[in-house]
Amino acid sequence: KHWKSRYFEIEERMLYCYNYRPSMGGKLIRAMPLEGAVVQEIKNGKYPFTFEARNQHFEFVMRAKNDAEVLLWIKLLRGESEANALIPHVISDDEVAEEEKKESSDGEGCQDGTTKKKGGEITTKLTPNQQARYDFFKNERDFVAAVCDVAEVLRFHDPKERKAIAPGLVSRLSIPPCAYVPLCKSTDVWRRVESVLADDTRVFNTNERCPMIYYFVSKRGEKIGTTLGIRNPNLDVAEYMHMQFQVPQVDPMGGLTAIGEHEDLEGHDVELNNSKDESREEGRHDDNIEVKDGEIKDGVADDDTLDMNDPTDAVGTGSVWAAEDSTTSRPKSSLFVSLPSKLALQLNRFESRRKLSYLDRTGTPLKNTTPIVNKKVMEKTVLENVIDDDDSASDNVSLDGQSVTGSVTSGSIIMGDQVMTFQPADGVDKASLVRAKNVVSGGESWTEKTARMLKTAKQNIVKDGEEDTSVYEIETLMAKSNDDLRQEVFVMQMIHYFESVFAKAHVAVWLKTYRILSTSKSTGLIEVLTDATSIDGLKKSEGYPANGGLRAYFEQVYGEPTSKSFLAAQRNFTRSLAGYSLVCYLLGLNDRHNGNIMIDTRGHIIHIDFGFAFGMAPGHEWSFERAPFKMTRDYIDVMGGTGSDCFKEFKKLFVDGFKAARSNSLTALGLVEIMMYKSNYPCFTGTRYGGGVSLKRFEKRLMLNVPDSKVEKKAEQLITSSIDHYGTKLYDIFQKQSNGYAI
Questions:
Q1: Which of 514, 515, 524, 475 shows the shortest CA–CA distance to 192?
Q2: Cα dihedral: 313, 317, 323, 329 (round 10)
Q3: Crossing angle (nearest 10°) for helices 564-586 and 645-663
């Protein structure tokens, strides 16, 4: 190949390649992320002065003019590839080697806040507390990235080989000493990842991506930190972090001093007040460079979080530990900055030109806020505890006086040699659940599966002599690559918001708000829905009745239509159908084929995959999906027909939920308007959906111009027009012919 002259730029850890200089109209040809890239000189090659930069997906072979230019480019590229996003600039190995030629002494300080050591190692000047937090955060970030990278690596293998390759890749996954599955809130129970079950890994083959399901063994109820010896199995994530990483700082003499207990505290305050002015004076005389608060000079951020005396290093209550000879961080008032005048002027001009949204037009202040619910408030879930070993069972299992069963939702746990399984009690009897799992879960429920996995994992645990009383559980997640989940995260947040709206209005609909975490623009983690399968998978199952559809399946699994289990499952189906019918209409969810609608062993339906939202649909203007929401004949039959009491309950739930959504429309519209501002979500961009089009359609679906006296009639018309809609039928037929989804 002939060599081509190209213009390269390095910016924000990216390598950009242009056909010529951008300032002269050059166009970007391609770009390559430099994080973790391999940069090296090509020696003994055909051409002189050549070097390469490559990663898993890209490779650039470049040729410089001379040796000096080669060394300069390699130094710059390696500096970006080895840099860490948490500490903006960590000196690269090349820079260390260059400095070591000038300075041969060991441990000499650097201007950017680091300390050099022989061998190219870099030690950042952090307190023990800061170092522990940094290590934890970095390890957790690397752990999540490694989990997603396995799915990315498998994507480039032949689909027939992926399932055989996956266990080997997963077994090599490096698990940090303090890692957790990040699909949780700060108030959820802390569970530390102990190991991964590589042989149980599941792989799903698609043309463009390779989603994977991981199974991790987690522990809780371990000893916390160095000073606290308690074993509390119900510590939440925030409490655990507080106890584990609050490390007191030790002065050179080995003593600890609590600020507030020192005798000459007033004199220390005088130094505090003068420190700000003194630092500014020093800045004025340092090569005539003035350093303002918040700026970075010589690689050190002027921020109290990097100060040796971290105000968050607290143990107990009311004391901040620090070394006696350390200085106190500057007052918080110095952290406030004023808005630059040019930026303020631009914002004012923008506001004057901006078209008024619905919130601006109404001018109505938000009066009542809707608290986001953490748990279902309409139905109280009771856990049935089934213990394998009845002789050693107890009604209330505890560890150091703390109940273990209170934080279990479903599945199994192991405590000592005792295996306990938990499942919600909602009226569906065990015989019905056994029949349902044979069709839905392949004959093994989630509680049985986790119990089996835990028994196998427990046998592989090496005992260190001390009695292990920790609680072991199985955690599962789906890792995806080559898929942008940010829009799905937002849609799920809106579903969670409407769930809270319905709960506040005492509308007894059922919604499953599973957790989605977008880790980058192309990777993410998703909570796995257990004891559930898609309706497509259900209808293709061997145990599914050949005739009669969903109604025949319900009668086969849950019993006679008058039995307690059938009525409970029918109620679960109706309430979940009402909830998802509401959110599908309000949020404009499309692509609702039977592969994107799931059903669990208790009769609930659950919608997944929100790639088409706020009116965005496959085919766009030519989409078959014209109904307000999906309401097939199968659904009507399960409820007993349009004249049944169950269908009347569905209508009442839908109408009441729609009224509740209208009464909270200001907040909902505000959330959508905020998220669509300069958004790159597909549902908010382009000529079809950008420019506020999606927001206007959302406002129209809320029927805010309809009088309250006519809302109920309008809502019932939505139900009537959705029943057995021809567009729904056509789309299901299209999906069956193109993708093989069952109808």
A1: 475
A2: 60
A3: 30
Nearest in space to 502 (alpha carbons), one of 284, 283, 321, 659: 659
Nearest C-alpha neighbor of 86 from the set 34, 150, 131, 31:
131
CA neighbor of 668 nearest in space, from 519, 548, 496, 528: 496
Rounded to 5°, angle at Cα 294 from 291 and 297: 45
* Residue in this structure with the two tokens 């081509």, named with its chain if needed: 4
The span from the CA of 433 to the CA of 95, in Å, is 64
Q: Is the dihedral of CA 299, 303, 309, 314 positive or negative?
A: negative
Reported as a single tens digit per residue, the pLDDT across 491-531 is 999 999 999 999 999 999 999 999 999 998 889 999 999 99
Residue holding tokens 């289990």? 565
Query: Could you give the CA distance from residue 528 to residue 249 in angstroms, rounded to a whole number?
Result: 42
CA distances 366 to 62, 361, 553, 674, Å, are 59, 14, 47, 16
Residue 595 contacts residue 536 (beta carbons within 8 Å): yes
- Tell me the pTM: 0.71
- Classified as helix, coil or strand, 597 is strand
Q: What H or E segment, with its residue span, contains residue 245?
A: helix 237-245
What are 39's strand-pairing partners? 53
CA separation for the pair 312, 330 (Å, rounded): 14
- For every residue of 308-374, DSSP letters joined together read SS-TT-B-SSS-EEE-TTPPPPPPGGGG--PPPHHHHHHHHHHHHHSPP-HHHHH-PPP-S--PPPS
3-class DSSP state of 729: helix
Phi first, then psi: give them for residue 535, nearest 5 degrees.
-65, -30
Owner of token pair 């209170």: 406
User: Is 696 within 8 Å of 604 (Cβ atoms)?
Assistant: no
- The amino acid at 454: L
Condensed to tens digits (0 to 9), the pLDDT of residues 271-325 reads: 434 444 444 444 444 433 343 343 433 443 333 333 333 333 333 333 333 333 3
Terminal Cα distance for the chain, rounded: 54
- Alpha-carbon distance values, 52 to 59, 69, 202, 411, 543 (Å): 7, 13, 37, 51, 58
